[in-house]
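agent> Task received from the user: take the single chain below, predict its 3D structure, and emit structure tokens. No templates, no multimer pairing.
agent> Plan: (1) validate residues, (2) run structure prediction, (3) serialize to tokens, (4) report one or two observations.
agent> Step 1 OK, no nonstandard residues flagged.
tool_call: predict_structure(input=
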Amino acid sequence: MEPVEAPETRSVFGKLLLEHRRAAGWTQGRLAEASGISVRALRELERGRARAAQQRSAEVLADALGLTGRDREFFLTVAKQGRRRNPALAAQVAATCALPAPLADLSGRESELEQLSAKVAEGGGVIAIVGQAGVGKTALAVTAADRWRPDFPDGGYAVDLRGMDDEPLSAGAALDRLLRALDVAPGQVPAAESERSALLRMLLADRKVLLLLDNAADEAQVRPLLAAGPDSLTLITCRRTLAGLEGARWLGLEPLSDGGATGLLAKIVGADRVRAEPAAARELVELCGYLPLAVRIAGNRLATRPQWSLAHLADRLRDESTRLRALAVGDLQLRSAFDLSYRAVSAGARRLFRRLATVPGADFGAELAGVVSGVSQGDVHEHLDELVDASLLQTTAEPERHQFHDLIRLFAEERFDAEEDSATREIVLAHLLDKATEAAKLFYPKAPETGRFGSRDELARWLDVEGTNWVAAHRLAARRGWHREVRDLAVALHWYSDGRSAQKPWLEIFSLGAAAASALGDAGAEAKLLNFVGWASSVCSGDDKGAVMTHRRALDIAVRIGDRVEQTWASIYLGQVLRLIGESDEAFEFAKRGYELADELPFWDGQTTARNMYGRALLNAGRHAEALAVHRAVLSDAERLASDTYPGFHQLLQTLTLRAIGDVLGALAEWREAASHYRTSRWLAWEGGFDGLEVISAIREGRAWREAGAFEEARECLTLAVELSTAPSFNAWREQASAELALLPG
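)
tool_result: status=success, residues=746
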């Protein structure tokens, strides 16, 4: 009989191996015979003394067990995850799901904290904190999580599910965040939601963790996330009761008591002011319905106006001219609390407040506020300041930018629907699409320095800062069937996207554009945008096979309509992505074809890309001297024709071409010269603001210095690459740079 191990001693891979072996009805001896792996090694794996098998061993075991399809993929993924060892990187990634800091002025929730503590003492599992908007669910959950954090030694994690958004965070996206926080490499996160949930369950099965799922939308969103083991605790906050959750325990959160609300007010405005006017303080919190958010709004107004008495504010709230209806119970209490602050500001600020609900992105500045309100910039700034003072808007880390709290945005949308004409929505969408299209056109190779909305530098800044707004406007326009505008913006963004592959959701943007072009019957634009979709599939999403299919579709359309320009681009791209999937011969033929067809293109508008791609194909074919000649000729011609484009585009081409030359020199083992080219490429990328290109050049420079034996220079470059790769879209590069750092001696 096989020895039985305690479940907590097994590794994730060991448990999975054991499950598959038992499902097959095999002994360890039989699996050893079938796989060629010793019984002792199998025993070590199943008991968890070895975290996972090496890649070849895992593949042999999968073959022996007859695993196919998703079962095989999941088995190999878990094996690879078990081999990962990078505690520093794991901690860095885990910080993206760190528990937030508790509020310093939480008051009146002592009883609820005791109730939660009693539920936790009964065992782990799932506790849902439910109640109306503004009742303080998140504040209570965060405080409780901070109190219990030492009881969960294997970690605390939090995800904002953004349940109040038009598009809440999907369960799949939330699982992706949690898996990455648990140090699962981006490329190893399963595609299917069910497999992500299964992997999370296996990773957490024997751990004691605390998980906060804040602002949930409904049961369907959170159910796949309930993967923690029996000794762990999952806290959920939600406006809905989540009555459909199996095995959950609930805490219904009610408004504060009189003493709790007054205590919260005292913490905001100062205990001395409350002691000086106790009756006014009690009346004030009563008028606020004892809701923490309403009390906080009133308290913040008093804290920023020390000359006001509490009675003065209570008088204003009592007056029906500033408080249109009495605060009520249930969900109306929150609406009434928001309406209280809304009616206390000027008519101009109220108009701006409700119209700002039409801004589609996460935040906004004075420009968009002026577009939606139609008033002067001076009045816009005054009204924005007034709304910030009333706690109806929040300032952001970006100077002169503002945002709504999620729940206040909902209130603003309700006020807009009740008091405004829907035409404002069309105005702000049209403005964002028009300006983004015109701004993007200034990044074409031969574009002028200044356009209708300003200079290239100004509009580059605008495209960055207003990114969430014009991307959201593009998405909304696609839903509304604004095909022409959606197509035009996607086409215009081609050259702006170069060097900024990690900064925007390019696959979605170009896919929406291609669909719009198809709906318009515009085959030329469809072929062009399909080529952009293929680029984004490969460069942004790592889907090289999907990119090949998309570029072939673009090529078919271009051939059918006789569009030689898009035939050229399709050939250029196919030369790249076919090489990446190992189809070297066909890749070379397409790269050569693109190179030959590119003679018909202007130098700056495609010819440079075709020539550099052909140089890459020559390198891949081992024809190093020819590859160097091609890339150096591109640099030479670029200097000669520099006056035909703007400096930033010339700089982008230099960045890419110098890196390509460095690749050839590295293949020739001329490491110091390669490092020199990479360094120049890196500096040019930094000057041009091409973040992704700077990281890639830094990694390759670091590798070249290491090969040259210059370890300090290598460490400097690779450390820089890690520091620059903080955005989630840079995760793969950060891991690559960290892996290179680990190879350095000492």
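agent> Step 4: summary for the user.
Strands lie at 125-130, 156-160, 210-216, 233-238, 248-252, 394-395, 402-403, 450-451, 454-455.
agent> Done.
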